[in-house]
Amino acid sequence: MFHWKLASVATALLLVAAGSAATRADTPQVAITYIIDHPAIDATRKGIIDELAESGYKEEETLKLHVQSAQGNMPTQLQIAREFAGLGADLLVGISTPSAQALQSAAGDIPVLFSAVTDPVGAKLVASLEAPGGSITGVSDRQPFGPTLKLIKALVPDVKTVGVIYNAGEANSVSQVEALTKELATHGLEIAESTAAQTAMVADAALSLADRADVILIPTDSTVVAAVESVVNVGRKAKVPVFASDTDSVERGALAALGFDYYKLGRLTGQMAVRVLQGESPASIPVATLKTQDLYLNRSAAAAMGVRLSEELLASATKVVD
Taken in order 172, 174, 178, 180, is the CA torsion positive or negative? Predict the structure, then answer.
């Protein structure tokens, strides 16, 4: 009887193990990659994962999740994309333009979602915003520059030249600068450009604008946003107000931003991910974007950069950082 009990226990354990293996084999796999770590991208990633979990795709329970940063290195990003394509994942997600482009190139027939991509058509990720085609769609963070320029003119009435720092090798950023240049002309303003191919070059790029621009506007460029503190330091020392396009940068020292909440952007991307995991084709899902912008203000940055924030403006802000 003792041997029979041992055999029964062993059989039961084998059945449990087999059942667990079958469960693991059937568990959906999602792989997320992004070009560099910074708060806006971190918030986007968290939003995606939280939305998946709340929709029943919980990491280590009902979802196998792979997450990797390229640490600002494009060859590394391409390698990660190839590795992810070989996983047999059900869905690949790229946060930022270079990450999405790398996944698109490596994915083959695997569905791909992008997030925080400003110009998905210009980056050749989709055929159009309404009908993406292929096996990729996602969420864009394209924002109109008009409201931001009105904010800049209200806070810095004597502004004539707006300085912009961007990575000229990133399609997303080039597209933004082109759009900004056109918008500036309608407001009677000029642009001063400075480029930074790597995060380590952002400080020097900011310094080059200190005597050429009345304000600095940081676009949604991952290379620059990752080093926003270095731009803020230049702004404080030179008394050049620094505006951002993402709200997280205000908490890191920028004076103001009229932009998207990137956690909400991630949640929207997560909703799209659920649709794909449930069988919907990316080709039939239009590119989405958030509908509202939030105003973030930083009191100490304003004081250091010589800008007065009215009580009326402070009262209208979504968040005021002290």
Answer: positive
